[in-house]
Structure formats: structure tokens, C-alpha cells
UniProtKB/TrEMBL annotation:
The keyword Cell division does not apply. It is an enzyme of class 2 (transferase). One of its GO terms (biological process) is fructose 6-phosphate metabolic process. The keyword Transferase applies. It comes from the Eukaryota. Its EC number is 2.6.1.16. This is glutamine--fructose-6-phosphate transaminase (isomerizing). It catalyses: D-fructose 6-phosphate + L-glutamine = D-glucosamine 6-phosphate + L-glutamate. Residues 43-182, 215-356 form the SIS domain. Pathway: Nucleotide-sugar biosynthesis; UDP-N-acetyl-alpha-D-glucosamine biosynthesis; alpha-D-glucosamine 6-phosphate from D-fructose 6-phosphate: step 1/1. It comes from Geodia barretti (Barrett's horny sponge). One of its GO terms (molecular function) is carbohydrate derivative binding. The chain holds residues 254 to 619 of 619 of the full protein.
Length: 366
């Protein structure tokens, strides 16, 4: 049942091209270069009336929400915010009928997310869920359920459902952007071309999945890691750190790299390796500076870079390359090597990868 893989987590990492394909299926008109997203049954007029988007979730789904905030602002031009469902539900959140709340969850049963959705329902705001369980509480509570359809995820650490969430968030942001004429047809067509290539990009990345293993062999004995990313990839750093913490029990901290100089830089020395996510996007030069700051303090840097990036690969200690893609899709690619890194480290440390201590697949208590 593990399809020849040693663990469900590895099987599910390897299934990610299909997970992305499933999220795109019947939701994109590739010929016309348009996102249709028919399961979001709101008219263009209703979508154009959305003045604010609030994205909520927990754990990995919260990290997806933070990526989603960037996507909605960038592709739809609508103010957006992301927050942990467990914090959101205990505030008195401002919600009105022009607010669209997007609740993200693999299981659709996370108690904090479900409770937050109940609050939203009473407020009159519109409620969408992105989830992988058609019969879940989340799917029942939402006005619109965008189902991942990527098959059950058995490993406790979320992997393929994260990429599904990110794919669906791209579609949602594009659908909103088109409805309110923020995203023109040429821009939409270009983004759809990127989406069409995405499953192949992820598959290509997985062909060299074994390249990450030697890195794990060199670093599995370390006790602390720092993860750095910026902009849309800052939440990817958080997700990479979360994966490492939960399955290998190694302490890992993630920072938006611009924050490093305000404190965490004091931690850097030879014993503290840094995972840096530095694709060639608008923040590349900023990330390059941050990496230089780490190198200047004798820290090892393992970097996720765009294929062909000789400049940074010469500077860092180890590089893993991702195929070139549109900036809105880099989070999907940059996540994969971080999942594999956490996986191989946990295996080397003899941890129970699929059933990490103290964790349950769905957290139905508060
Ligand atoms: C991370 C992980 C947890 C879940 C979180 C939310 O790998 O498994 O952090 O992401 O408990 O679960 P869902 O997405 O089911 O609401």
C-alpha cells in the first residue's frame, strides 16, 4: 500500500505532480488561458464585490494561507491577510458581507479551523474552504468547497496537500483578479501557461530527489537550523522548518530574511546551518545579501536556487536547484527539496516518520 516506498510520507511527496494535476483538473481553460474554477459558484459581479480576503488555517495549512495572502494581493489586487484559525476565533474579527474568508485544511476537521468557520458563518461574510475531505465539517460549513482531490494523505506530516492548497490558492486569486479586471487576459494567459507546466516542473524536481540525501547525511547530527526566505517564500521557510521539527525533532526556526539583522543573526556560527530559499525573483538580490551576512559569520548555507544560478551557488556551501517558473509558483517548487531534506534527516535519525511522537493526523481538540 506504500507503493514500494519505505514510508507514506515519501510516497506522498512523490505523488505531488498528480496532486497538482488533480487541483487543476476541470478548473482551467488552457485553450483560452483562463481560470474557470466552476466550484466557486459566485458571479463575476459578486466576486468583484469582495473588498477583503481573510485566509485562515493551522500548521501547514496556515503556511499555505500566508502564501495565499501574497497571491491574492498580487494577482487580484485585493487587501488580504492570513491568520492562525486558533487566534482568529478568539478575537472579535471584523467581518462583513464583502469579506471573503478562505479556510484551509487537509482534514476539514481541525477543531480550531471548524470553530473559526462557525464564527464566520454567523457574520454574513462569504466562506470558502480548500480541503481534501469531501464529507468533512469544513466542506459542510462552507458556502463553497474547493476540494483537493489528491487522495488520502496518510503520513502525519502534510506534504501533497500543501502543494494542492497552493495550486488552488493560485486559481482562486486568478479567478478573483479576472472578475474584477485586475488581471488582464494577456497576464492570465501567461499565468495559465505557468500552471500548465507546473506538474512537469514538480516531476522534474522529483527526478533528482535523491540529491537531497547526501545533504541529510552531512547535517543530520545538528541540533539547530535556521530557515530563511522572503516575500512569498517566507512562509515556505516556515513550512520547511515545521517539517523538520515535527518529524526529526530538531529545533528549527524560520525567519523572513529581512528580520535576521534584528536579532537572530546573533545565533549564527559554524554550528548553526541555514537553509535559504533564494529563487530568481524580485527579492533575489535581497536574499543574496542575507546569505552573504550568514557566510560572513562562518555559517553553513544550504540554498534552494533557480537552475543555472552560478552566482549564488558559488557562494553557498550546498545548492539544490528548482526549475525556472513564474514567481507565483516558486513556493510550490521550493517546498519540495525542504520536504525531502526533513524526510531524509528523520530517517537517518531513526525517527518514526509517518507517526511522529505527540502528533495526530487531525487535531480535533482545542
Ligand atoms: C503539519 C501538520 C499539521 C497540520 C495541522 C492542520 O505537517 O500535519 O501542522 O497541518 O494540524 O491540519 P489540517 O490541514 O487538517 O487542518
Amino acid at each position: 500500500e506504500r507503493g514500494g516506498y519505505r514510508h507514506f510520507m515519501l510516497k506522498e511527496i512523490m505523488e505531488q505532480p498528480q496532486a497538482v494535476t488533480a487541483a487543476l483538473r476541470d478548473r482551467v481553460d488552457f485553450g483560452r488561458g483562463l481560470v474557470t474554477l466552476p466550484d466557486l459558484t459566485l458571479t463575476d459581479r459578486e466576486l468583484a464585490g469582495v473588498s477583503r480576503v481573510v485566509l485562515i488555517g493551522c500548521g501547514t495549512s496556515l503556511n499555505a494561507a500566508h502564501v495565499g495572502r501574497h497571491l491574492v494581493e498580487r494577482l487580484a489586487g485585493i487587501p488580504a491577510e492570513a491568520e492562525s484559525a486558533s487566534e482568529f476565533r478568539y478575537r472579535e474579527p471584523f467581518l462583513d458581507p464583502s469579506t471573503l474568508v478562505v479556510a484551509i485544511g487537509q482534514s476539514g476537521e481541525t477543531a480550531d479551523t471548524v470553530a473559526a468557520m462557525e464564527t464566520v458563518r454567523q457574520s454574513g461574510a462569504r466562506l470558502v474552504t480548500i480541503c481534501n475531505a469531501p464529507n468533512s465539517q469544513a466542506a459542510r460549513l462552507a458556502d463553497h468547497a474547493l476540494l483537493m482531490g489528491c487522495g488520502v494523505e496518510i503520513g502525519v506530516a502534510s506534504t501533497k496537500t500543501f502543494l494542492s492548497s497552493l495550486t488552488l490558492l493560485n486559481l482562486l486569486a486568478m479567478r478573483l483578479g479576472t472578475a474584477r479586471s485586475h488581471l488582464g487576459s494577456a497576464a492570465s494567459r501567461k499565468l495559465v501557461e505557468g500552471l500548465a507546466r507546473l506538474p512537469g516542473n514538480v516531476a522534474q524536481l522529483l527526478e533528482s530527489a535523491d540529491d537531497v540525501e547526501p545533504l541529510a547525511r552531512s547535517y543530520y547530527g545538528r541540533n539547530n537550523f535556521l530557515y530563511l526566505g522572503r516575500g512569498i517564500n517566507a512562509p515556505v521557510a516556515t513550512e520547511g522548518a515545521l517539517k523538520l521539527k515535527e518529524i526529526s525533532y530538531i529545533h528549527a526556526e524560520a525567519y523572513a530574511a529581512g528580520e535576521m539583522k534584528h536579532g537572530p543573526i546573533a545565533l549564527i556560527d559554524h554550528a548553526m546551518p541555514t537553509l535559504a530559499i533564494a529563487p530568481q525573483d524580485g527579492l533575489y538580490d535581497k536574499m543574496a545579501n542575507n546569505i552573504q551576512e550568514v557566510k560572513a559569520r562562518d555559517g553553513d548555507v544550504l540554498a534552494v536556487l533557480t537552475q543555472g544560478d552560478d552566482r549564488l551557488s558559488d557562494l553557498v556551501d550546498h545548492s539544490v536547484f528548482i526549475p525556472e517558473t513564474a514567481p507565483n509558483l516558486t513556493p510550490l517548487l521550493a517546498t519540495v527539496p525542504l520536504q525531502l531534506f526533513a524526510y531524509h534527516i528523520a530517517v537517518r535519525r531513526g525517527c518514526d516518520v509517518d507517526q511522529p511522537r505527540n502528533l495526530a493526523k487531525s487535531v480535533t481538540v482545542e
